[in-house]
Design goal:
The protein has 10 helices and 2 strands. By secondary structure, it is an all-alpha fold.
């Protein structure tokens, strides 16, 4: 029979082994945690990038027509409406003309979308944590106003990070055989603008873009998330399934509503931004002097706004709104739903709604 000392030694040995095992487990978890977090971040970025690429390619012809309508010279009208404009592009440039600039657009929108969705998730977490600390309610949820703030943060970060790509994308989109400069692609355009016009030229129109992105992206996220949240909690119209989830069609409708609200509010700033980017380009919108010769005189955001309204009327701020509306509604809807579906496929536990 074992002595009491033997029993004590055995218990001490078992205790030591258990403690070592627990320490090893904690160390293992400590090693795995960063890699798990990195994998989760990567999946979120990939989902956001795919969502942006798919949604933008689906509406590429309308995106190009919108820009052409925004910047065309009011004294040399080539594109007069959505249907006529698309037919004109098809007749003069063929099928490829409908997708001109889409490669550059996707090269910009993929990282932009990835950063935007990821930034929204992180901003939402931070804002929610701060809101709970301030209110003292650990069960508090994001309100529409807080979602608007998170979306605005995401939009500013994504826009600023990818703005030079947006600037050269606009020029490549309107480029023709008679354009003053011939860009061969994204990087050639970036290097040419940087060399000939300086670093500041890559950020022409940045201020109205940032101002415009606050209501645009902010409202997109706020309307989409709040509408979904309301439908799920109220179970309105019987749209919630047995898993307390909304179907793809319903989510597309929520995205369409979000896109419509956001783009209507922010559209005039998008027109101003494009005109600032296209300064000096043949056939781009410009101020016409008394002798009938075209001369660009835009010197800043306020100046562009003032002269556009004075010479072309308030309606000029909404040039291209129809094709843009037709484009934005499905584009935003497809982006939101694609993002959530891809994250489901990749096995990411959290979605923006959560």
């Amino acid at each position: 029979m074992a002595s009491r000392e033997d029993v004590k030694r055995s218990e001490a040995a078992v205790s030591t082994i258990v403690n070592l095992a627990e320490e090893a487990k904690l160390a293992s978890e400590g090693v795995k945690a960063p890699s798990h977090a990195l994998l989760s971040i990567s999946k979120s970025l990939v989902a956001g990038g795919i969502a942006g690429g798919v949604s933008r390619t689906a509406v590429a012809p309308l995106e190009r027509l919108k820009i052409l309508l925004q910047v065309q010279n009011p004294h040399s009208i080539k594109y007069n409406g959505t249907i006529q404009g698309l037919k004109y592009i098809w007749r003069t440039e063929g099928f490829r003309g409908l997708f001109k600039g889409n490669g550059t657009n996707c090269a910009r929108i993929v990282p932009n979308s990835a950063v935007k969705f990821f930034s929204y998730e992180e901003a939402s977490k931070g804002i929610l944590w701060f809101y709970r600390q301030q209110s003292g309610n650990e069960e508090a949820e994001l309100t529409p106003v807080l979602r608007l703030g998170a979306g605005a943060c995401a939009g500013i970060i994504a826009m600023s990070a990818t703005y030079p790509m947006d600037m050269v994308r606009g020029r490549l989109t309107v480029q023709t055989d008679k354009s003053p400069r011939q860009y061969r692609g994204i990087f050639h355009a970036l290097s040419t603008v940087l060399r000939e016009e300086g670093p500041r030229a890559l950020y022409k129109g940045w201020l109205p873009s940032v101002i415009g992105v606050i209501p645009y992206v902010g409202l997109n996220f706020a309307v989409y998330e709040s509408l979904k949240d309301w439908l799920i909690k109220s179970k309105a119209f019987g749209l919630v399934d047995e898993n307390n989830e909304l179907g793809v069609t319903t989510r597309l409708a929520c995205g369409a509503a979000a896109g419509t609200v956001g783009q209507t509010v922010a559209y005039p700033l998008d027109v101003i931004r494009r005109r600032m980017q296209m300064v000096g380009w043949k056939d781009a919108a410009s101020v016409v002097t008394g002798d009938g010769k075209s001369k660009v005189e835009y010197t800043g955001m306020v100046d562009t706004f003032r002269k556009t309204v004075r010479h072309e009327g308030f309606g000029a701020l909404y040039k291209g709104l129809v094709p843009n509306s037709v484009k934005v509604v499905p584009s935003i809807a497809i982006a939101f739903v694609t993002y959530e579906l891809v994250k489901d496929v990749l096995g990411v536990e959290m979605r923006i709604s959560d």
